[in-house]
Amino acid sequence: MRGLVWLLPWLLVAEVRILTDFPNASAGQVTQVSPLHFRVGVKGQADQDGRNRQANWYFFRVSGVPKGAEILIDLVDLPGEYNYQPNRGAVTKDTRPYWKEGKKGGWQEARGDYDPAEPRWRLRFRPKKGEFLVAHIPPYTQANLRMLRKETQPVVEQIGRSVGGRPIELWTFDRSGGNKAAPVVWLMLRQHAWEAGTSWAGEGLLRKLGTGIVWKVLPWCDPDGVAEGGVRFNKFGYDLNRNWDAPNDAALRPEILAQKAAIEDWLKEGKKVDFFLTLHNTETGEYLEGPADSTLGQSLYSKLKEETLFDPDRPYLSRMAVERTGRANVIQWLWKTHQVPAFLMELRIAASPRRQARPTAESWREFGAQLAGQIAAALLAK
Predict the structure, then answer these.
(1) What residue ranges of the chain are covered by domains with CATH 2.60.40.3120?
(2) pLDDT over 90 at 354, yes or no
(3) Does the domain made of 10-135 have the CATH classification 3.40.220.10?
(4) 239-243: long-range contacts at Cβ-Cβ below 8 A with a sequence spacing of 24 or more?
(5) pLDDT band at 130, cuts 50/70/90?
(6) Which of 30, 91, 226, 290 could be cross-linked to 297 through a Cys-Cys bond (beta carbons 3.0 to 4.6 Å apart)?
(7) pLDDT per residue as tens digits for the range 136-166
(8) How far is the CA of 139 from the CAs of 59, 206, 252, 278, in angstroms?
(9) Topology of the domain comprising 142-380
(10) Span 333-341, mean pLDDT?
């Protein structure tokens, strides 16, 4: 009884709120179970046919928690589909949520338990100042990108606009020293909005670009999705890495069209692409894929596995054949249409078997720097 009396003032004044009024934020339905217990749905996103719902992203602020109180938050609405097959969702026991308190505090894994029966995560927080953030993985936002552009000073070209009217940029870093025969590398980041780890790795890479190479970078392939807390589809439900061989449509898929045109314009000018890489995140897998007979891809895979934080869960693989018209990804389209040596890398967000730890913004940046060095070494050795 004494404990209840002690707690009662908190309950009477508690005005806890779940907020998504900031860039990159996302949460679904919020249900208050008790003054200090909430169920927060993961909003998710479906494709143009209302299928393939992906609940890979949530990012929200909790405010108004009484000082010293513990608050419970259940993350729910997790199941969805992937490639038209039902699944239990991307938020599992292997992807413990993150939280952050204060502007200077770092992201850390939250306390709590995963219940596979519902499924749900029940999280427990005891914030010091009554306000904190919760996210699937450490976010990389437009503010981070602006700072990176300011500090790395690329040549910036606006190549188009998203469905929502946001600019799509192409960055160029010419480190060739005027050598017209220098290798040319194209990089794509953030084709899927939730994959913030690709931006952390990309930042590390762009801060350590090797000399002797021309680097062309598409740093923000889904600006609407990142700004609005999306997952992997544009506003009309098109997957920005799965519809590259669909008819060009500036109204429905302007993001793909702008990126495709930038690459093709480069090639039409008689310029080359020696290496193309798109970076992605997945929950538990990590791998590199590309053309089957690519000695460059196989050699890079081996070097990355031996000398960097890259921890693949399978051998180098090739899936360049398109199984269904209209569903080609960017590397399949580039290889089939232009014979560009194109590769896709997945970086896991779960614990690495070799390192026995979850990746962090710092470790992704470290890997990005390592990746830049390995790409440069592989191309300059040819």
Answers:
(1) 10-135
(2) no
(3) no
(4) 239/47, 239/52, 239/192, 240/191, 240/192, 241/191, 241/192, 241/278, 241/280, 241/329, 241/330, 242/327, 242/328, 242/329, 243/326, 243/327, 243/328
(5) very high
(6) 290
(7) 999 999 999 999 999 999 999 999 999 999 9
(8) 8, 18, 27, 19
(9) Aminopeptidase (3.40.630)
(10) 98
